[in-house]
Amino acid sequence: MDKIICQKILSICDEKISKKGENVGLSFYAFFANKNDNPELLMEVATWWIKTHQLNHFEKAIKIKSMIQKEAL
């Protein structure tokens, strides 16, 4: 995934963790507005989430943050 969406994912994970604690879960929809204004990017993230990593619909934000950070290395 490109660096811009990775940064957005990290930011949203940090926000959710700070508000609700380390056990907060989220889906890949958390990174998008409630409208489908960028279907290509939505599919890229959905593919990463569902096909590449076979994640459940909801995952711990801390897990997603860690995965994104490892891929950014």
Q: If you had to describe this structure to a student in words, what would you say it looks like?
A:
This protein is 59% helix and 5% strand. The protein is mainly alpha-helical. It has a two-stranded antiparallel ribbon. It is globular and about 30 Å long.
Which bin fits the share of residues in helices? Answer: 55-70%
- Indicate the low-confidence ranges by residue numbers: none
Work out the radius of gyration: 12 Å
Main β-sheet: number of strands, strand sense, barrel status?
2 strands, antiparallel
> For the largest beta sheet, what order do the strands appear in spatially?
1-2
Number of helices: 3
Choose one word for the global shape.
globular
Q: Average pLDDT across residues?
A: 94
Find the count of extended strands (DSSP E, 2+ residues): 2
Class by SSE composition: mainly alpha
Layout of helices and strands:
Layout lengths: L2 H18 L4 E2 L12 H14 L6 E2 H11 L2
Antiparallel strand pairs: 1-2
Helix pairs in contact: 1-3
Quick rundown:
With about 70 residues, this protein is mostly helical. The protein contains three helices and two strands; from the N terminus they run H-E-H-E-H. The protein starts with a helix and ends with a helix.
Features:
single chain, about 70 residues, mainly alpha, two-stranded antiparallel ribbon, globular
